[in-house]
Structure formats: C-alpha cells, structure tokens
Amino acid sequence: MDVPKASDVLAKDLRERILSGELPEGTVLPAERELVKQTQMSRATVREALRILEVQNLIRVRAGRSGGAFVQRPTTNSMANTVSMMIRGQQIKLADLFQTREALEPFCAELAARNRTEADLAALDQANEALADPAADLTAFLQANLDWHVGVASAGRNELLIGFMTALSRAIYTGTENAAFVDDNVRAVTVRAHRSVTNAIRARDAEAAARRMSRHVHSYAKAALAVDDRDAITIDR
C-alpha cells in the first residue's frame, strides 16, 4: 500500500483551496515558519510542497521584503505548456497533430465568427500581412502562420480551445519548419486560405468560416505529410 508523502498531502490540500477559490488569486500564503507551525510538518516538507505548487504554476514566489508565495490561477499559457510537454514526451506523430487540428480548428473558426471583436480582426489582418510579405523568411512565415491560427482560436473566447490550439500550433510550427515544403506555392495557397477564412469571420458567417477552415487545414496537412513522413517531432520552444 502506497503511503503519500507529507509534502504531497500538503500540496494537495493547498491546491484544492486554490482551485476552489478559497484562496483567491493574489493571496499571499503564510510564511514558511507559519506553515510549519500550522501544519506541524517539517520545514523541508513545507518547502517541497511549495515547490510542487510553483512547478504547477499555482503560486509564484517572490524574494525580498515584500516577497512571499503568491497564489495564481492556472492560465491558458500554462495549459499550452503542459500540452506541449505531453506532445514532446509522448513523441506524438505529426499526422496525429494534424488530425487533432482538423477536428478542432473548424469549430474554432465558427466560434470566432460568432464572437470576434474589432481587435481580433486587427490581429488576424496583421498576421495575414506578415504572412504575405514576400521578404519574409521561413521563420517569419511560420511565426505569422502560428499567430493567425492562435488568433482565430483567441477570437472564439473558449479558453480550453485557445490552450489546445496554442500547443498544437507550436508543435506544427516545429514539424513543418522545412523549406522543401514551404515553397512559393504553399505560401500563396496559405495566404489565400487565411484571407478567405478571415473574410468569413469578419462577415460573422460561422458556417462559411468552419467550412473554409476545414478545407484549409485538411489540404495543408495532406501537403505537409506528403513531403515529411516523420513519425514524431521535437518541441524546442
């Protein structure tokens, strides 16, 4: 029978209090000495529990006179980082990443058409301009591509989808960093597809946005996998 470590027990208790809202964001946890006194646990145990929470992005530790352990809630970015680590650790196949994007992204476009703001459209237009820049090198093109796809998800206002799409887009960026694939024809087709989806989002035409996005991500995946048949990719960012 496995007996949980005392530090795990304390970390679990504090984690539940943070996630339930009992400890709101910005709350300063009691000082280490006070936690030792309250819990009757050793200082090493308390420190380990706080380290666990820090790794899980549930607290941030600030040094100095006004420092301490401050509660913070999980963010979209921390979720994206966790998914990225899972993709890398499990050596997820590039084909599986594309399949996941085909399943999620048309709905992201549909939500974007319903919920987008003028600021969202400005971000998409900026990414499209960077994408179409004839002077853009491979890195700049792929970054603009990532910014556009994440921008579509962000316009949908669904935090889970934003986190997933951020991680997927980072992974696909790395997996398609291949000059043999991203040639002039692929660039031109991508620019046209992005503008077409953006126009549907601007017009609040959810059906057209989903349909055009589905066609785009399917065609992009098919072309990419025809050039690069690697089983797995490496996330390095």
From TrEMBL:
GO molecular function, one term: DNA-binding transcription factor activity
Native source species: Mycolicibacterium hodleri
Record's keyword annotation contains Transcription regulation: yes
PROSITE patterns on file: HTH_GNTR
Pfam families the UniProt entry points to: FCD, GntR
Domain spans labelled HTH gntR-type: 4-74
Keywords carried by this UniProt record: DNA-binding, Transcription, Transcription regulation
InterPro entries registered for this protein in UniProt: GntR_C, TF_FadR/GntR_C, Tscrpt_reg_HTH_GntR, WH-like_DNA-bd_sf, WH_DNA-bd_sf
Superkingdom of the organism of origin: Bacteria
Name of the protein in its database record: FadR family transcriptional regulator
